[in-house]
Amino acid sequence: MRIAVDAMGGDNAPKEIVKGCLRAAREFSDVTLVLYGKEEAIRNELSEDLPNIEIVHSEEVVKSDDDPVRSIRRKKESSMVKAAYSVKNGENHALFSAGNTGALLAAGTLIIGRMKGIDRPGLLATFPALSDKRAVFNMIDVGANADSKPLNINQYATLGTYYSKHVHGIDKPTVGLLNNGTEENKGNDLSKSSYALLKENDSIDFIGNVEARDLLDGVADVVVTDGFTGNAVLKTIEGTAISLMSVIKSAIMDNGIKAKLGGLMLKDSLKEVKDLLDYSKYGGAVLFGLKAPVIKTHGSATEEPVYHTIRQIREMLESSLLEDLISHFENQ
């Protein structure tokens, strides 16, 4: 399997992208990583030559502040665009970038193309579930479409269900609609119309509305919502985790010798908490509903999340996820 990597995307590119790719290439000999970007800059970061790492020189870079659609149309020699065309043309099987999110969404939709039957692709992210019921949950959409239609949310439920089955191995994933209450009549017109469609969707196990306060308790395997709400929840979870660890650190460091000794005794437990809240180990956000996997990781990604994202893509490609989804929507 071959993965096209935008080696110039992200705040820490190409250094951290290359480091993550080296780690993944050492571990997964069945994966060939094709790095698109400025060849000299990439080679300067390669600490060793591996047979499953290739470089394709790309002179241009899509920057974080570039207009998404204009950059995709004008920067034909950029690392992101060349990587996207390689997937469209069948040279590679998936696309991975830590770069401009809007541009990656545009490249996925305009170059690689939507799966037949999909109205709008959605971004799916995986989060830790802090309960005994389940280890993780998936949420879609977390930012691809700020203005979603009931049709989109209904399709997200099917996409998320297939992802949970194939990637997380959950036999019958439950689906919840993110809302401001659990009663069926709660929410705005979008929520109510989406609820009606989800109830009739016989390809999912719909459990009704779920509230944001219950997400990390593992209330459902798949949570569906519009992209505006999903992105706000994503950043709230991310910010809360960062702030929580900062508060704990300050409480230990600023309260004398007793607090420091207590912190030392709790060091291993606190590391477990930090690891549990770190959702980057589950990989990047999948732009789901396209003809091939397109994965976005955080713009500030370092070696660790880059490695986990490549592992995630490998799991997707090893499964029959896309083939089964294509078959499902073609038969609708």
TrEMBL record:
Enzyme kind, highest EC tier: transferase
Reactions this protein catalyses: a fatty acyl-[ACP] + phosphate = an acyl phosphate + holo-[ACP]
Cited InterPro entries: FA_synthesis, Phospholipid_synth_PlsX-like
GO molecular function: phosphate:acyl-[acyl carrier protein] acyltransferase activity
GO cellular component: cytoplasm
Source species, domain of life: Bacteria
Keyword Cytoplasm listed: yes
GO terms, biological process: fatty acid biosynthetic process; phospholipid biosynthetic process
Subcellular localization, as worded in the UniProt entry: Cytoplasm
Pathway of action: Lipid metabolism; phospholipid metabolism
Assigned EC number: 2.3.1.274
Coiled coil segments of this chain: none
Keywords from the named record: Acyltransferase, Cytoplasm, Lipid biosynthesis, Lipid metabolism, Phospholipid biosynthesis, Phospholipid metabolism, Transferase
Pfam families, per database record: FA_synthesis (PF02504)
Major subcellular site: cytoplasm
Subunit structure: Homodimer. Probably interacts with PlsY.
Annotated family: Belongs to the PlsX family.
Function: Catalyzes the reversible formation of acyl-phosphate (acyl-PO(4)) from acyl-[acyl-carrier-protein] (acyl-ACP). This enzyme utilizes acyl-ACP as fatty acyl donor, but not acyl-CoA.
Protein name per UniProt: Phosphate acyltransferase
Gene that this polypeptide is encoded by: plsX
